[in-house]
């Protein structure tokens, strides 16, 4: 079992930045690949970014490429999502999730943190 807790959300103006954190506890965090997802009101949850257990590979949704950066510090059991040049359409609840392999489903989820970008 892996417990995930997100933090760092808030209200920011368009063009601003936020850094989200996903802190993990429980089983060995460094064994898990981590993903960030978001869900806006009335919309389906969508993939944002993912990072492998070692941090050697990352992937991003086209909508955030060049603006968001995912990283991890396994010594701190934490994954980060640096979000720059934020747009109103980035407004959503952001959640992190963990999976054991790149082919498995994300089995563990955090409760989410709200990000609101004003125009």
Outline the fold blueprint.
Elements: E1 2-7, E2 10-13, E3 18-26, E4 33-39, E5 46-51, E6 58-60, E7 68-73, E8 78-83, E9 92-99, E10 108-109, E11 113-118
Parallel strand pairs: 2-11
Antiparallel strand pairs: 1-3, 3-8, 4-5, 4-9, 5-6, 7-8, 9-10, 9-11
Summarize the structure in words.
34% of the residues are buried. 0% of the residues lie in helices and 53% in strands. Strands 2, 4, 5, 6, 9, 10 and 11 form a seven-stranded mixed beta sheet that branches. A four-stranded antiparallel beta sheet has the order 1-3-8-7, with no helix packed on it. The N and C termini lie far apart (40 Å). It is built from no helices and eleven strands. By secondary structure, the protein is mainly beta. The radius of gyration is 13 Å and the shape is globular.
Portion in strands: over 45%
What's the alpha carbon Rg, rounded to whole Å? 13 Å
Q: Low-confidence runs (pLDDT<50, min 5 residues)?
A: none
| Secondary structural class | mainly beta
Q: How would you concisely characterize the structure shown here?
A:
By secondary structure, this protein is mainly beta.
Any descriptors?
0% helix, 119 residues, single chain, globular, mainly beta
């Amino acid at each position: 079992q892996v417990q995930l807790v997100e933090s760092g959300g808030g209200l920011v103006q368009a063009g601003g930045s936020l850094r989200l954190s996903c802190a993990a506890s429980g089983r060995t965090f460094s064994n898990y690949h981590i993903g960030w997802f978001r869900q806006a009101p009335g919309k389906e949850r969508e993939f944002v970014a993912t990072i492998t257990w070692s941090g050697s590979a990352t992937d991003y949704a086209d909508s955030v490429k060049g603006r968001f950066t995912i990283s991890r510090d396994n010594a701190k059991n934490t994954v980060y999502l640096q979000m720059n040049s934020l747009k109103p359409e980035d407004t959503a609840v952001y959640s992190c999730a963990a999976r054991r392999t790149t082919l498995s489903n994300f089995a563990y989820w955090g409760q989410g943190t709200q990000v609101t970008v004003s125009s």
